[in-house]
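Hi everyone,

Forwarding the result from last night's run.
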Amino acid sequence: MEPVPLQDWMSRLPEPLLQVPLWDLSIPGSHDSMSFCLDLSSPMLRSEPPALRLLDRLLPCCMRPCIQRWSTTQSSVLSDQCELGVRFLDLRIAKKPAGGATLFFAHGVYTLITVKEALVELSAWLEEHPREVLIICCSHFESLTERDHWDLVQFIIGLFGAKLCPPQDCPTLSSCWLKGQQLIVSYDDEGVVKEHPQLWTSIPYWYANSPDPKKVIQYLDSQLSKGRPEKFFASGLNLTEDLTFVLLHPLLNLRTLTLKGLPPLLRWTNQQCPGPRRAAVNIVCSDFIGLSHFCSIMIGLNFKSLGSALEAPRTLVQPVVAVGPKGRSQHSLLLN
């Protein structure tokens, strides 16, 4: 079978999978997708624990490198993540206390790249890949006013227009292609969603809140045993640390912790199956998605539902990201 390029994997799926609702497909996602470009000179978010904010004020020379080590969960810009096969993006939006009307992303501190810049980048990527469908989950919205929400949604509608897939539909790849739809926007604010029929409600995100991969697997198994949601939902492979863990492990960072935890987490992922059944997965999110075969594994799960009629391609072409300044990257090709 021909190698499947991950940047166009949706357009290469076999015909039976084109008629499947997107919430019954296996979709790779990135956790905290914009944390590759944290601005360490920006203020810490007001929602961070008081003890952490106090330490940041008293010992910024120690705390800022610590924030970078533990708040950075990705290594490359959104378009590169999409090239790697990611189709679900976790976008945590916030406004700086004295930042005017400009919106940023945030994880502990704010990002260098603005929300509008990132969305324009995604729009350009979709133009280059007209048969790929993205899901973006907009959430958190720290310090946003009603006016900020309105302006943001109007920008999204104006930028993507007919590419938006509304929640009234039951989207399949076939139906999205027919209608020219490429983007599903989940918006974690019920009031805003009620006013804008183009927006989807919040997508549930399951995560274990633990730095131990065994506990992550136990938690996800427990959640799936209770039955999956009817539509979109995400399962997080991300390892989560608290302040105590960080202070007890001064030589560790999230990247190293993730690399150590990936083997059992990827084995668990490879054992899953998408579809409508009770314990099926849909979206699965990981940190540092370019450091492993995570996306290849997730895409391959889709072929399980085809049974013996069609086997998954033995080879997936995965762009390997070499990170440069400000999260920009260059691609080389690796055959998995």
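The longest strand covers residues 134-142.

Cheers,
N.
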